[in-house]
Amino acid sequence: MTRFLIAVAGAAAIASAAPAVETTVDNPLLAPWTGPYGGVPPFDKVKVAHFRPALEAAMAEQLAEVDKIAGDPAPPTFENTLAALERSGRTLDRVATVFGIYGSTMSTPEFQTVEQDMAPKLAAFSDQITQNEKLFKRIAAVYDARDAAGLTPEQKRLAWLDYTNFVRAGAKLDPAAKKRLSEINQRLAALYTTFGQNLLADEADYVLYLDRESDLAGLPDSVRAAAAAAAEQRGQKGKWAVLNTRSSMEPFLTYSGRRDLREKVWRTFYSRGDHADAHDNNAIITEILKLRAERAKLLGYQTHAHWRL
To answer: Is the CB of residue 155 less than 8 Å from the CB of residue 82?
Structure first.
């Protein structure tokens, strides 16, 4: 199971608004994986347009699975509650895996629009699960009876983990506090997404071009070749480009004999999101810190750090 996507989380509207049929039929993200190693992601078939309907359909599916577990008339047991919860959300696991890979390595402007839209919805989705009172009562019952029920050490560990995660996510709060907590989580999800996209923008927008052999002092042939290829890709054939990315910056800092250029490259990378422009993160950081502090207090912790630890 996706651990309820507690770190990111999904949307109250999703449960009641099923996606249109034409948006999910033949969506490669919703199909079980096929091929070697027990199945592999269908990267050759996925398009950015597939993500939104796939995530919405997968979240709706898991919410239905969770409601079934929560509404089970049988007394709660490890098998019909915790194990069933572990088995839920398999479709969402697959969709979220590919979604995460795109966010990490294929974050095009088209994808970023989808990411901005879905981040708060994923947060609300997670809260719908952790704030499901019937479900939490069943989890708590299994947790309380973990010794008397003769659970294995592994089962006891899962009982503790699920119970603890739900409590830390606000399962014991009153309705008003739960509502505010979900609002905070959704806003934080949006802020985290914007923060990351601002860093990516500065990585793409800031490039150091070198045009003299002396600028390459200390660089091995492999780093020189990569820098030359990067420059040529950007219409600067005959020069060398140090991109504002970790994979380009770190080799340059490691090998360059030019202290002045090393400082310039480091400062450019270090100051991503801190240029008082459209991609500046300072106001975002301030709001994130305030919301984290408020959330920590809602959950009974002195600070966000205490909650994390």
So the answer is: yes
Are 232 and 192 a contacting pair, CB within 8 Å?
Answer: no
Half-sphere exposure of 145 (CA within 13 A, CB side): 13
Please give the Cα distance from 39 to 298 (Å, whole number): 42
Rg (CA), the chain: 24
Q: Is the pLDDT of residue 9 over 80?
A: no
As a dihedral over the C-alpha atoms of residue 13, residue 17, residue 22, residue 28, rounded to 10 degrees, the angle is 50
Phi, psi dihedral angles at 207 (to 5 degrees): -135, 135
pLDDT at 4 over 80: no
Query: Three-state SS string across 269-291, please?
Result: HHCCCCCCCCCCCHHHHHHHHHH
pLDDT for 251-282, tens place per residue?
999 999 999 999 999 999 999 999 999 999 99
Evaluate if residue 305 carries a pLDDT over 60.
yes
Query: What residue type is assigned to position 49 of the chain?
Result: A
CA dihedral over 255, 260, 265, 270, signed as positive or negative: positive
* Amino acid (one-letter) located at 15: A
Quickly tell me which residue has 């096929």 as its tokens: 34
CA-based nearest residue to 82, from 93, 96, 99, 70: 70
Domain layout of the chain by residue ranges: 3-172, 207-270
pLDDT at 24: 65
Residue range 130-137: mean pLDDT, rounded:
98
The alpha carbon of 42 is separated from its chain's Cα centroid by a whole number of angstroms, namely 20
Contact 41, 97 (CB under 8 A): yes
CA-wise closest residue to 28 among 53, 48, 46: 46
What the block records as the tokens of 179 is: 């509502």
Surface-to-core class of residue 152, CB atoms within 10 Å of its CB (0-12 exposed, 13-18 middle, 19+ buried): exposed
Topology of domain 3-172 in CATH is Neurolysin; domain 3 (1.10.1370)
The pLDDT tens digits of the residues spanning 35-79 come to 999 999 999 999 999 999 999 999 999 999 999 999 999 999 999
Q: Residue 77 — φ and ψ, nearest 5°?
A: -135, 170
